[in-house]
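May I ask for whichever protein you like with its backbone structure tokens?
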Amino acid sequence: MNAFKAYKARVPIAWSPNLYITLVRGIPGTRRLHRRTLEALRLRKCNRTVMRWNTPTVRGMLQQVKRLVVVETEEMYKARKQEAANHRALRPPLVVSHLPTPSTDSSL
């Protein structure tokens, strides 16, 4: 599953005072109005996230560029960041012994 589908699978359900908006599609080739809207949202590069208040103005802007962005609530954003941090966390080293295992049978 690519990143875009993973984002889209997390649809915001609960109301949140803050919205986390991530640009997941590129700006080149989009309409001028959409580029201006993304500029107003301060989204300039792909996979960048900004936090905006949940107001009717911002929701209208998001409705205009909904195919380019992904919207998350605060809880979803924190859960995704925690999941990514756990994935990047240091793991204990894998120890492989290439020596033959000692035999407990001493009949030789």
